[in-house]
Structures are given as structure tokens and as C-alpha cells.
Amino acid sequence: MRSETSNNTKIVATLGPASWHKEVMMDMIKAGVNVFRVNFSHGDHETHRRTIRLIKEINQEFNCKVAVLADLQGPKLRIGDVEEGAIINEGDTLTFTTDKVDGTAELVYMNYEQFPSDVNAGERILMDDGKLMCEVVETNKKDTVVTRVIQGGPLKSKKGVNLPNTKVSLPCLTEKDLADVVVAMEEGVEWIGLSFVRDAQDVKELRNIIEEFGSYAKIVSKIEKPEAVVDIDQIIHATDAIMVARGDLGVEIPYSSVPMVQKMIVEKCHIKAKPCIIATQMMESMIESQSPTRAEVNDVANSVCDGADAVMLSGETSVGKYPAKVVETMASIVAHVESTFDVKPITDNEPSIKNERYITKTICYNAAKIADQVGAAAILTLTFSGYTALKIAGHRPKTKIVVFTANRQIMNQMSLVWGVEAFYYDGMESTDQTFDDIKNILKENGVVETDDLVVKIASMPIQEKGFTNMLKIAAV
């Protein structure tokens, strides 16, 4: 079972009660899903293990390459239960306490113990994705914070809290996250989403844990905090991929800044050849409706034009009424934009620093240029880490990037990368024999036809699995 679409921009879909059934997941894959997101903010370990194993079962049964993104909750702040019908109004006093209480319109429980010691008078507290806003009047620095309501409305149970002016002392990886990482590692996921990243050190801490497990899993750093925007260059350098998580980000920074921050991050990811996912509220009306709003169509289209590697669905596929339909709709928008618009990085990004990767980077750069010049049907590369595929994709060639690897986890990882299609191949007799085998695989799968031109890159001698040092143009 192969996806009915072959778009360059990939689709990430969140699984949940509406979609974690085998038949629904298969329909979503047919409609164009490349990566399934398993959200560890909801559900228990047993459910997550069952979901991940079901994805792997589908991959094996139908020869699919869908990757799993295990998304950690991170230090998400929430209020506790609140009585039904509670409403706060502008000018009201709302008190937060770290003692567990039944919430009212005057007093609510905050699940973050250091909250009173972290906040200061004058700082803003946002709740329910910014719908409610309070200002700190005073804190006893122990267990109580008194605030004045600036923007009121219904006060509902378990709603998220954002502190855009406050330096939060919580670690990026909570105790829950550490337990969730173990589950993700044991189940062999391809990608791990790190929530509320503040700086590159947060990424390095998760990297150390992954390496201790001996895993090939790669990290998606979610940009949701103002501190992350400030440290974005170092975070991109330290991570494997970026997610522009516009929900919390749009609450933490002025919402008018989000579009330009999105474009800036995508451009920086191109330069570093790191995949970039655009997420949150992309087609939210399709949770209930069978068609998107025109604004949502524009949002998806602009993300494709910006050059994002992937666009992501959240509630639309996890709790929405039409999981497969929304994927099909998003895939059709992506396909139409890609058929009429050539995505090119703003920066040419020719290799300049002569380090140990200089030859490999130069070959990847020129493979993309030459493939466009000669109208090649595909760029073919063998990879043991995914590095060459990422570098070629960073230059956004017009042709398909086809990757062969003997590591199935890396093969699936490539499902997140712009323009890349990956195949499993473990024969390494000689360079010529390998590429003969590869061309046969591609013809069997309808990727290339006889007399098509292809650009081939590899490391020679192939058995040494060294740095890429060969580029060749050939006819099939």
C-alpha cells in the first residue's frame, strides 16, 4: 500500500481517539500521511505502545515507510479542576495556589510548585491559549499568587498556562518526559519531539539520553518560547529538525510576529539543511467540517511556498470527524501549490568551510544543481546516516531525491524530509553493481523509466562506507 500522493512537502498527522484504529490509519496513509505523531501529553503508556506497534505492523504488512514522531509533553503548566460555569471578568481578583483545591472564579490550583517563587508583580499570566489574561499583583514566593484579571471569559478545568514574561525554572525534561522517553526508545520510534525548548542545552540533554539507549532516533525541537527564538541559531545547530509550534508560540510572543518568525526559522533551517515542520491550527475548521476555510488553504499554501519540509495536523486527525478526508484535502492543496510554484531557498548556500564534510557538502550541492540543469528524473544516493539526503534536500532541487539505506529506522526517518523517497537496500558488493540494483528497484516502483537521466552520488570504495566523494550522471 503506497500513498496516492508523491508531494515534496510531507504531511504529519496526530493520532488520537478518532484515528488510532488500523483501518483509519491505512486510509490516512493512502490519502498522503508520511509521519504519525503520537502525543504523549494525552493517553497512557499502554495506549502509546499499542499505537506505535500498530504503525510498525502496517509498515511491515503493506511495505510502507511511515515514521513515528513521539511528542513529549514538556513542562506544560496547567490549572486544576474548576467548577462548572465559572467566569472571570475584567478587574476581578483571581488567586492562584499550589495547594490542591477545587477551583472557582476566585481561586484556582496551579500544578507548578515553583510558580509563586518564579513570578513577579507586573508579569502577565495567560490561560486557555491566551483567551484569558491576568497580571500579577503580589506573590508570597511560597504558595500563593494574587492577580488582577485583564481579559476575562469562561474559566475551564485543566487549561494550559503561559508565562511570557517569566523565566520558568522547570527543567525542559520533566519526570514524566523521562519515563515517556524510555517507552519511545523501547518501541524504536524514529523522531522525538522536545517541547518548550529554551536553548541548545535542552536539546543536548535529550541527545545524551538517546545516545545512552544506542538509538538512531532524531530530535524535533519545538519552538514555543521567546527564549527559543532568541537562541534559534544554536538550537538549529544542536537539533535534527525544528517544529514551529504556533499555538503556544503565538501566546508567548505577539501574534503579529508569528508569520515572520515562521519564515525566518524556515530560512535558517534551509541553510543548515534541517527539516522544518509548520504546526498548529492549519486546518482546524475541519475538526467539524468537511471543507477548510479559505484562510486555512492560504496558510497551508504559504507554508509550502516558504519551503517547509512538512505541515502538521493536530486535533483535525486526533479528535476530528474526518481524519482521512482532512489529510486528502491537505495533500491536494500541497500538490496544487507544488505544481505551480518552485520552492527555492533564499540563500544559495554553497559550501565554503573546508572541514571534513566539505567534499560531501560540495557533491550534494552540485548534485542538486546538475540535476536541475540536465532535467534528471532523480538524484540517487546511498546513506548510512541520512546526512546526504538532508544536504541535498536543503538545496530544494526540482527532481526527486531517492535514498537507499540498509537501516530501516533511517529509511522511515526520511519520510519527514522534503522531496525524499527512501528504499531499503543492503547489498554492497561494488559501486557499479549497487547502482545497477538500485536502478532496477526504481524501475519496478515506477520512479524512473528507461533512458531517464539520473544523478548518482556515493562513497568509493562503497564497502568502506566513508564520506561521499563521487558524482556521476547516467542514463537508465
Describe this structure in words.
The chain is of the alpha/beta class. It folds into three domains: 232 residues, Phosphoenolpyruvate-binding domains (TIM Barrel, Alpha-Beta Barrel), CATH 3.20.20; 86 residues, PK beta-barrel domain-like (M1 Pyruvate Kinase, Domain 3); 118 residues, Pyruvate kinase, C-terminal domain (Pyruvate Kinase, Chain: A, domain 1, 3-Layer(aba) Sandwich), CATH 3.40.1380. Helix content is 36%, strand content 22%. The protein contains 16 helices and 22 strands. The strands form four sheets. It has an eight-stranded parallel beta barrel with strand order 1-2-3-13-14-15-16-17, surrounded by seven helices. It has a seven-stranded mixed β-sheet with strand order 4-12-8-9-10-6-7. The two termini are 26 Å apart. The mean pLDDT is 94.
